[in-house]
C-alpha cells in the first residue's frame, strides 16, 4: 500500500497532523500501536495556549472545545501561605484554556473517521527507512509495509522514529523529583489554577470541569504509587496548599492516579532525509509550564504548512527549514519549563542559601510588573515562529 505521508503514532501530534493534511487534500495513514480506548483515556495535559486553541478552532475541530473548554485569565502563585494572582490577560492580552488532552484526542479521532481518514489502531511500527520513506508495521499478528513520500514520527518519547535517525545530538536534564497526578470527582476548590511552592514540595491545583478536579504533588522520582492511599494524598495536598486565611481544599473520590517522571530532553535536528520528528518524539519538557502538548501542536502546524507548500508548488524550502523553525520555539519552552520547575519545586539537595534565593525570586515575580509580564508571556505562549 502507498500514501503521501505515513504518520507514526496516533497521539495529539499524529492525529492533528493527519487532520491538517486532509484539509489540504494530502493523504496520510496514521499507525497507532494502542487501541482507540486506551489513546482516548490516557490522562495527561490540560492547559492550552491561545495559539493551540486557535489552530484547533481554525481547522474546524473546536466545536466542543468552545462549548466545554474553560477560558482562564489568570493564575495564582502560592508560597509562604499566601496567594498572589498573576493577571495573565491583563499583562499579555491573551488567555489560556483548560481542555483535557483526552478530549482533544477524542475530537480528532472522531473527525478523522467522519472524514473517511485512515487511522489504524493496534498497528505497531517496527521499522522506518528514512531514505526510501517506508514503514514496516505489525497488525493482527501480520507484518505489513506502507510506502510513502514522507514519514512523520509522532510516536512520543518511547517510539521508534527517533532511534531511526542516525547521528542525532541529544540534550538531557533529569530532575530529582516526579509528579503524582490525580483526577478526583470533586468540584474544584478554586476558579483559577494554583501553583504552590512549599518546603514539603510543589503542588498544583488544576481542574477539568465544575465537578472534576485535577491535582498534582511533587514526589520522589522512585516513588511507589502504593505508598499513596487517598487519605495521604489529600492530607499532603492540604498541607502544601494551606493558607492563613481559612481557604479549604475539598476532597472527593480519586478516579485516576499516576506518577510522571520529570525530564528535559531535546533531539537535534528534527529531520533526517524523508523522516520528520514532531512532538514528544523530538522533545520533552517537565510538565510545570504545561508546554508539552502545546509544543506538539505547534510542531505539526508547521509541518503541515511545509507539506502543503511541497505538494502545491514543489518547493522543499519550508521542509528544509522545519527543524530550525521548530527548535527556536522548543528551546524557549525548554528554558521556561526548566525555569518554572526550578522556581516552584523543593529540591532535596538545596541548602539554605538556595532556598532563600528561590523565595526572593518568587517575591520578585509577584511584585515586579516586568517580571510578572515575562512570566505571563511565556506561560500563555509566544507567537508562532516565522
Ligand atoms: P504522545 O501523546 O506520546 O503520542 C504518541 C503516540 O504514539 C502514542 O499514542 C503511542 O501509543 C504511539 N506510539 C508509540 N510507539 C509507537 C509505534 N512503534 N508504532 C505506532 N505507534 C506508536 N504535558 C503537559 O503540558 N501537562 C501535563 O500535565 C502532562 N502530563 C503528562 C503525563 C505523562 C505520563 C506523559 C507521558 C506526558 C505528559 N505531558 C504533559 C506531556 C504531553 O502529554 C505530551 O507532550 C503530548 O502527549 C505529546 O503528544 P505526542 O502526540 O507528541 O505524543
Ligand atoms: C495541567 C497540567 C500542567 O502541567 C499545568 O502546568 C497546568 C495544568 C492540567 O493537567 O490541568
UniProtKB/TrEMBL annotation:
Domain spans labelled FAD-binding: 2-337
Keywords for the protein's UniProt record, in alphabetical order: FAD, Flavoprotein
Database matches in Pfam families: FAD_binding_3
InterPro entries: FAD-bd, FAD/NAD-bd_sf, RIFMO-like
Gene3D superfamilies reported for this sequence: D-Amino Acid Oxidase, subunit A, domain 2 (3.30.9.10), FAD/NAD(P)-binding domain (3.50.50.60)
Protein name, as recorded: 4-hydroxybenzoate 3-monooxygenase
Amino acid at each position: 500500500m502507498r500514501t503521501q505521508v505515513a504518520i507514526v503514532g496516533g497521539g495529539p501530534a499524529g492525529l492533528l497532523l493527519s487532520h491538517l493534511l486532509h484539509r489540504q487534500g494530502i493523504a496520510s495513514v496514521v499507525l497507532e500501536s494502542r487501541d482507540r480506548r486506551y489513546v482516548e483515556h490516557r490522562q495527561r495535559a490540560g492547559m492550552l495556549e491561545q495559539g493551540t486553541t486557535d489552530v484547533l478552532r481554525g481547522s474546524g475541530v473546536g466545536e466542543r472545545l468552545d462549548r466545554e473548554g474553560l477560558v482562564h485569565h489568570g493564575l495564582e502563585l502560592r508560597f509562604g501561605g499566601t496567594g498572589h494572582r498573576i493577571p495573565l490577560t491583563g499583562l499579555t492580552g491573551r488567555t489560556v484554556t483548560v481542555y483535557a488532552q483526552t478530549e482533544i484526542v477524542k475530537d480528532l479521532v472522531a473527525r478523522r473517521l467522519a472524514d473517511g481518514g485512515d487511522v489504524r489502531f493496534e498497528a505497531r511500527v517496527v521499522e522506518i527507512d528514512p531514505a526510501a520513506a517506508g514503514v514496516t508495521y505489525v497488525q493482527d499478528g501480520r507484518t505489513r509495509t506502507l510506502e510513502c513520500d514522507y514519514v512523520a514520527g509522532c510516536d512520543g518519547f518511547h517510539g521508534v522514529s527517533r532511534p531511526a535517525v542516525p547521528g542525532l545530538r541529544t540534550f538531557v536534564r533529569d530532575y530529582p523529583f516526579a509528579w503524582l497526578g490525580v483526577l478526583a470527582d470533586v468540584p474544584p476548590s478554586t476558579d483559577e489554577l494554583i501553583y504552590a511552592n512549599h518546603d514539603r514540595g510543589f503542588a498544583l491545583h488544576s481542574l477539568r470541569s465544575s465537578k472534576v478536579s485535577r491535582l498534582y504533588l511533587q514526589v520522589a522520582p522512585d516513588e511507589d504509587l502504593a505508598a499513596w492511599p487517598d487519605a495521604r494524598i489529600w492530607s499532603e495536598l492540604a498541607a502544601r496548599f494551606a493558607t492563613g486565611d481559612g481557604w479549604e481544599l475539598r476532597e472527593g473520590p480519586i478516579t485516576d492516579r499516576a506518577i510522571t517522571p520529570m525530564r528535559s530532553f531535546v533531539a537535534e535536528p528534527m529531520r533526517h532525509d524523508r523522516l520528520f520528528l514532531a512532538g514528544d518524539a523530538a522533545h520533552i519538557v517537565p510538565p510545570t509550564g504545561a508546554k508539552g502538548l502545546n509544543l506538539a501542536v505547534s510542531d505539526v502546524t508547521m509541518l503541515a504548512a511545509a507539506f502543503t507548500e511541497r505538494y502545491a508548488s514543489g518547493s522543499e524550502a519550508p521542509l528544509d527549514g522545519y527543524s530550525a523553525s521548530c527548535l527556536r520555539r522548543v528551546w524557549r519552552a525548554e528554558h521556561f519549563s526548566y525555569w518554572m520547575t526550578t522556581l516552584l519545586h523543593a529540591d532535596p539537595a538545596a541548602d539554605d542559601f538556595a532556598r532563600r534565593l528561590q523565595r526572593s525570586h518568587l517575591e520578585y515575580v509577584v511584585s515586579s510588573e516586568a517580571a510578572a509580564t515575562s512570566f505571563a508571556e511565556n506561560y500563555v505562549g509566544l507567537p508562532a515562529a516565522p
